[in-house]
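Our working data are protein records whose layout never changes between entries. An example says more than a description, so a record of this kind follows.
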Amino acid sequence: MEDIGSEKGCCSCGGEGKSICRIEALLSVDERGQMVLPKEIRERANIKAGDKLALISWERQNEICCMVLIKADSLGEQIREFLGPIMRDMA
């Protein structure tokens, strides 16, 4: 799929190196609102049955325009990294 280069992106916040945003797949939503993550993507992201994913959305003009899936375990780690220094400064 197509790479969309970015010097700073969601995966490189505060880090070094180039982040690459990539359109990995096009998903279809069935009549029940379900969709399937392709096997190759699940394997590369190490997503297994029973894993929890957080759906993060952005709104523009009261309509969701973007959505991102993040493994719940990773999201917790990122929040601790972000809030840790703030909480230390407050103490």
Q: What stands out?
A: The chain has two domains: 1-46, 52-91. The mean pLDDT is 80. The radius of gyration is 16 Å.
